[in-house]
Amino acid sequence: MNSSMILALLSCIVLLGGCANPRALVAGQSTEADVRARVGNPTGTHKDRNGDRLLEYATGPQGHETYMVRVGADGKVKDVTQVLTEEQLDKVVVGKTTKDEVAMMFGQRFEEVTYMPGLTWSWRYNKGGIQPGWLIVAFNPDGTVSSKIAVIEPSGGGRDD
Questions:
Q1: Does residue 5 have a pLDDT over 60?
Q2: Half-sphere exposure (Cβ direction) of 141: Cα atoms closer than 13 Å
């Protein structure tokens, strides 16, 4: 393969990758059909209390971004939100938020583990878009949140200096 063929192939990949980004959708104009044509089938779908459909686009299981595309009753995109953030974690209410609500808030989880205190879910994320870490939510036996935390991975590869 010569260098011009490689350059052409890379250009196509970049163009296709740009089309597949949910952030390129236009609120109030893009339709659900546009979403599926540009981004593909969602990794999950959810129905909000107000009747909106949430189309989940996770980059997981080890990706650091999950986008929720909110589609209204009129079939048009209302907004596109990257949900793996500390701001989203702040919306989780200990003792009140349920597993179903957490699943709708964060989408496909990286891991599900049961420790002594109970079921725990985690997601990879990037603090400020650059510092890798974990969003972790643990549940009570009744299915409500018992604790939540954002953990930043230590820099330096975990080596003691």
A1: no
A2: 2
